[in-house]
Structure formats: structure tokens, C-alpha cells
Amino acid sequence: MLESMTGAVELGLLYALMALGVYITYRILDFPDLTVDGSFATGGAVAAILITHGASPWLATLAALASGLAAGALTGLLHTKGKINGLLSGILMMIALYSINMRIMGGKPNISLLGTGTIFNPETTLLMMLIVVVVVKLLLDAFFATDLGLALRATGDNSRMIRSFGANTDTTKIIGVSLSNGLVALSGGLIAQQSGFADISMGIGMIVIGLASVIIGEAIFGGGSIFRATLAAVLGSIVYRMIYAIALRVEWLSASDLKLITALIVIVVLVLPSVRRTVGQKKAARKRVIELTAAPSQGGGR
Question: Is residue 254 part of a domain?
Fold first, then answer.
């Protein structure tokens, strides 16, 4: 059990970068970006093909980040300059990336990294990922405190207002979506190295996993400031993987049920706050009725 929880924390940190990327589009930009499913696989494909061709694993990791930045920028351009609906822009880019990823991988559906060097050492993976995630999180916090970061946050809150101050919302959207997918692709590149292979379908469902991590983090640890919100996304990713690991230990569940487990976790996390709110409102209404019915009798007693 301890070993599976350690593995869950390790995976949670690997996927935390993806969760931070989803947080940028989902919470900050309020942009429904489905490019994530494609850019995650792009990061894995780029890292894997470069490593198998003798490139440095660190260089391959940076190339994965760059590929995600490019994919996100294209989605942003489709939306802002092409005037295509944000959701449709992400879908179109996700579809295009499937073919692009196949091209990157030389027409193969998967690439094995067994026997090649990666940035990971089995004994230090957890520590390395903890350092990487903390550094990325702090850099994001610092970025969102800059003028450009504040403009990006304001674009998501009220794009009309920020335009009235002379800010170019098209630019901030492109930067935000690009940064988001860069982190997603970086996560994909790291996952490919940690698992020992890159697969054309490895990005399927990533947007749901990212949203689950963000929502779980906010539900448990709260939001508020950028520092707290990014921390919640990271911790939410870890908690999600722990829930996942526990679910897999249930005897009547199999590996083929993983996507179902993901969907159920998201449904529960989304429904619970609404249920809690409804129960609270009913209690408050009942209390108010009791107070109103008790008031006349108290007045008559006087």
C-alpha cells in the first residue's frame, strides 16, 4: 500500500505540470481549450523521437516544452485572428495534432524508450519531480505578478474592461494558451520518459484529468490568491492520483475501467458543492420559517 501511494505521489507530481497548464486556460483565461489532449501526446512524441535519435534527454524535454508552446500559440491564433470559436479552435488543433504526432513518430503508433537514457533515475524520480514542480509553480506565481501576467488575469476576468485600458487581449490570450499547452507538453515529455514509451493515444482524456485535478484541489484546499490556487492545482493532482490508486485496489475494478473511474471522480467533485449548497439553503429556509412562525407567539406573550 505504501509503495502504491509513493507511486501515486510521483505520478501526481508528473501530471501536476499538466494540471497547472489546464488551470491557466480553465480558471485564469476562462478558455475551453481541448488542445490539451493533442499537445500532451506531442510533448511525449517529440521527447521520445529525439532521445531515440541520440539527443540529450534534457534537450528533448525542452523541445517538448517548445512543441507545446507552438501548438498553443496556433490555437490562440485560430481563435483571436481567425475569429473561430474558442472551443472549436481547440478541437480543430487537437484533430490536427493527431496527424502531426504520427508524423513526428515516423508513422508509428508508439515509440519505446527502453534501453535509452532519460532524465530520470528510479531512485531520485520523486525528489527530482518535486523540485521541478516547485520551481515551475514559483515561476508561474512570479509571472502572474508581472504587468503581463496581471493583464492575462484581467483578460479572463473582463476582457472588455482590459481593452478599454489599451491592452491587447488577443496577445494575452495567445500567450496564455501557449503557456498552458507548453506546460501540458512538458508533462507529456516527462511522462513518456518515466513510463519508457510514447504513444499516439497517450493524451486522450488529459483535459478531464487536468480539470479533475484543478477542481479537487480547489474543493479541498481552496483558491483565492494565485499562490494558493496554483498550490491547490498541484496538490489536487496528487490527491487525484491517490484516489486513482485506491480505486485500482478494489477487486471488481480492472484497468479497462480507468476512464470510467476518472469520469466518476469528476462527476462527484462537481456535484458535491452543488448538493452541499442546496442542503445549506434548505436548512437556512427551514430555520427562517421556524423563526417567523415563532415570532407572533412571542409577541402575544408580551
Answer: no
